[in-house]
Amino acid sequence: MEQLIETIVKPLVDFPDEISVTADESANRIVYKLSVHPSDIGKVIGKQGSVAKAIRAIVYSAASSHRMKKTYVDILD
């Protein structure tokens, strides 16, 4: 799933080498933490969060099709 998030985000940012995705897994959920260069945060979030919502929708859909635990995507500052 980390690779899926990186594949989605890489074309959106100016510093693709600084993309970092980590997974924090507990008993009933997985939280993917996305970190990008500070100047790219706005591009990943988009106007009114539209890009972030789209990224989350794709990841949630992929996770539910694999019958994974409840999945979340956090974009870190």
Quick recap:
This protein is α+β, with helices and mostly antiparallel strands and 77 residues long. It has helices at residues 2-9, 41-45, 50-65, and strands at residues 20-25, 29-35, 70-76.
Describe the 3D structure.
There is one protein chain. 12% of the residues are buried. A hairpin with a 3-residue loop joins strand 1 (20-25) and strand 2. This protein has one domain: GMP Synthetase, Chain A, domain 3. By secondary structure, it is α+β, with helices and mostly antiparallel strands. The chain has helices at residues 2-9, 41-45, 50-65; strands spanning 20-25, 29-35, 70-76. A 3-stranded mixed beta sheet has the order 1-2-3. The chain contains 3 helices and 3 strands, in the order H-E-E-H-H-E.
Give me some keywords for this one:
single chain, 77 residues, globular
Compute the CA-based radius of gyration: 12 Å
What is the structural class?
alpha+beta
- The amount of helix comes to 25-40%
Topology as a string of helices (H) and strands (E): HEEHHE
- By DSSP (H or I, 4+ residues per run), the number of helices equals 3
Low-confidence stretches: none
User: Which homologous superfamily in CATH is the superfamily?
Assistant: K homology (KH) domain
CATH topology call = GMP Synthetase, Chain A, domain 3
Q: What is the first-to-last residue Cα distance?
A: 21 Å
Kindly state the mean pLDDT as a whole number? 93
Total beta strand runs: 3
The CATH architecture comes to: 2-Layer Sandwich
State the name of the first-level CATH class: Alpha Beta
Shape: globular
User: How many structural domains?
Assistant: 1
| Percent of residues in β-strands | 25-35%
- What oligomeric state is this? single chain
